[in-house]
Amino acid sequence: MASFLNKITDSFRKNKSVLGIDISSSSIKVVQVRLEKGRSILETYGELALGPYTGLERGQSTNLPLEKMSGALIDLIRESNVTSKDCGVAIPMSSSLINVIEMPNVSDNKLKTMVPIEMRKYIPVPISEVIMDWRVVPKESELLKSGDLNNESGESKKNQGVEKKEVFVVAIHKETIENYSEIIKNAKLAPTFFEIEIFSTLRTVLTKPGESIMVVDFGAATTKVYVIESGIVRDSHIINKGSQDITVSISKALGVSMAEAEKIKRENGLIEDTSDHSYQVSSLVVDGILSEANRVLLNYQKQFNKNVSKAVLSGGGSILKGMIEISSKNLSTEVIISDPFSNLEYPAFLEKTLKMAGPEFAVAIGVALRKLDEINP
User: Fold this and answer.
1) Is 68 left (phi over 0), alpha (psi -120 to 50) or beta?
2) Backbone φ, ψ for residue 224 (5° rounding)
3) Which of 29, 79, 256, 275 could, after both became Cys, cross-link 260 (CB 3.0–4.6 A)?
4) Cα separation of 46 and 343, whole Å?
5) What is the pLDDT of residue 140?
6) CA dihedral of 182, 183, 187, 192, whole degrees rounded to 10
7) What CATH number is given for 4-93+175-204+339-375 in this structure?
């Protein structure tokens, strides 16, 4: 799929190519890019549905053994004509923990000891079984002044007369890293980092210092909702419904197979003037998801007294026809569709195709962009 991009760019490959990999419950996606004269060039990309590997339909969530997952990745690499072995990999949000905690306003050296102790309250397994990273949340005034979302200065605030600072903490179970490492290495690839999918997605979204946005990532089995403030994940919520729930509902309501229901969903989307009543069925599912997402938005605005400037729709479910219209009705802010391929250069005749496919590849593109930064500091 899209392997012809390699033919277009073969003669221009003078710089090292890198690969971004996104493994979800329903598919694997890859994006290969290179840096040339300061520009990020798209070389190839591809997607492979995992459902058929277990007898399910395309778009359905599954749970493949590690060896089968490696086999699927190998198939995708071959079909997409991927040439790079140098890669980064995204880890699903469900396999991680993200939190912002309040700590005393002490030095970073003291925080190194205090943060793991504090995080024992939130992590349901021994601290020794997780990989943890953290950084102090910068003051909003410093962000606005410098425009640097990666400013390492600490945010101090007074809480009941005691000066505090906020610390942003990320934790991933070591077993998760080991499993993903096995999948990637069995495919003869060389991973240099693993990161949680939301950070990959954020790398493709333009934000302003001090701005708060919401990302709604429509996956197959779940929908992930994040509220991002100045590059910090202030709130995250997983809704246990996704695009495959639309397919199941259509199948039951219309008495058709899952394959036919998936076809109807992709063709009709959320367009109201359809003769088979799939709109009513689909919209009920999507309305429920968006209603819960809007509660997350409103709770954040109430708690922090800040407006969410926009909601960015991402993931495969967001490309359904009519999704932006129904989202605009349900969410209390401006709604836009993610366009991650806009961060890359590619042949002009692919613009329409890539714009439509973009939201599905946000994570893989974000990983590839980080990998480019890694080899071109």
Assistant:
1) alpha
2) -100, 135
3) 256
4) 17
5) 59
6) -70
7) 3.30.420.40
